Amino acid sequence: MSHPPSDSTKPLPIPPYMKAISGSIGGIMEASCLQPIDVIKTRLQLDRSGSYKGIIHCGTTVVKTEGVRALWKGLTPFATHLTLKYALRMGSNAVLQTAFKDKQTGEISNQGRLFSGFGAGVLEALVIVTPFEVVKIRLQQQKGLSPELLKYKGPIHCAGVIIREDSLRGLWAGASPTVMRNGTNQAAMFTAKNAFDKILWKKHEGDGRVLLPWQSMISGFLAGTAGPICTGPFDVVKTRLMAQSRSEGDMKYTGMFHAIKTIYAEEGLLALWKGLLPRLMRIPPGQAIMWGVADQVIGFYEKTYINKAPL
User: Fold this and answer.
1) For the CA atoms of the chain, what is the radius of gyration?
2) pLDDT in tens, 242-289
3) What number of CA atoms fall less than 13 Å from residue 124's CA on the CB side?
4) How many other C-beta atoms are found inside a 10 Å radius of the C-beta of residue 123?
5) Contacts of 212 (CB under 8 A, 6+ apart)
6) H or E element at residue 51
7) CA-CA distance, 45 to 221, in Å (whole number)?
8) Reduced to 3 states, what is the DSSP secondary structure of residue 44?
9) Is the separation of the CB atoms in 137 and 130 below 8 Å?
10) Which of 43, 52, 44 is nearest to 70 (CA)?
């Protein structure tokens, strides 16, 4: 049986490309399972008039008025977005962590994990998350059954319309709160996941041990709970800013701070955490699914190559 690396034994690193591959596979699985919760979260966050009474009511209303398939609206950009996002997140986090590793032991401090996670979150927010979420939210906010009556016919058409009406910058609406949300989320998530693996399962990266899927899922679930509570206001503001269209004269908010101030003044403090419950229903289970898959891919690599490598 393998043991955690001692002070004198430098753990062998997992290559960033393996982290990226494991994240993409986990992302595909997560998107397919949890898209309906994401649609409900978006509808609740955009509900200024109180049409929906809660998660169940929102879900049943969407199914009754638009059909079951409406719960998977925006799945194509969502699945593509998650696959690319996790590949970039896991890969860039692994690359950034090398800068913080102790040259002698190969260990990385919690502070190093926080900075690496924050950097990975900022990068994914700017490169992938913002444009994909703008398209996803515009598709999800459309209500109705008849495709010919909908403004956006699909993800590619939606992106084209946004660029035509709002210019290329329209795809990066809400970038500031997205950067804050993702940076904070990933800083917390990578640090917490590593801590839970050590505390619960005595698992150290590079030790050649492979966690059972349920063990990875528990660690991932717990690591995914703190972010949504801390970053709720950024997520609500991001959604509101992304849903705005210049062509329809619906530019209620001018930026992140103006949106926070306006929502607080008009709807109260709790409105900044609208959609928190569906976020908690989606993100921790999503992290559980993603890590359950990703750890198996990484574990297979560790078992096949690191266990055979001479110490």
Assistant:
1) 21
2) 888 776 666 788 888 999 999 999 999 999 998 898 888 888 999 999
3) 30
4) 22
5) none
6) none
7) 23
8) helix
9) no
10) 43
Q: Which amino acid is at 265?
A: A
CA distance 272 to 234: 8
For residue 196, give the nearest of 124, 288, 298 by alpha carbon. Answer: 288
Token pair for 230: 């801390």
The rounded distance, in Å, linking the Cα atoms of 125 and 129 is 5
Amino acid identity at 23? G
Q: How far is CA 179 from CA 27, 126, 130, 137, 185, in A?
A: 20, 7, 9, 17, 10
For residues 199 and 161, give the distance between their C-alpha atoms in angstroms, rounded to a whole number.
49
> How many residues does the structure list for the chain?
311
* Confidence band of 309 (pLDDT split at 50, 70, 90): very low
Tokens coding 165: 């009406």
Q: What is the pTM of this model?
A: 0.74
| Of 192, 270, 259, 261, residue with least CA distance to 227 | 192
Using alpha carbons only, give the angle 177, 181, 187 rounded to the nearest 5 degrees: 145
Long-range contacts of 300-304 (CB under 8 A, 24+ apart): 300/210, 301/14, 301/18, 302/14, 302/206, 302/207, 302/208, 302/209, 302/210, 303/208, 303/210
Nearest to 256 by CA among 277, 227, 231, 228: 231
- Residue 211's CB is within 10 A of a number of other CB atoms, namely 20
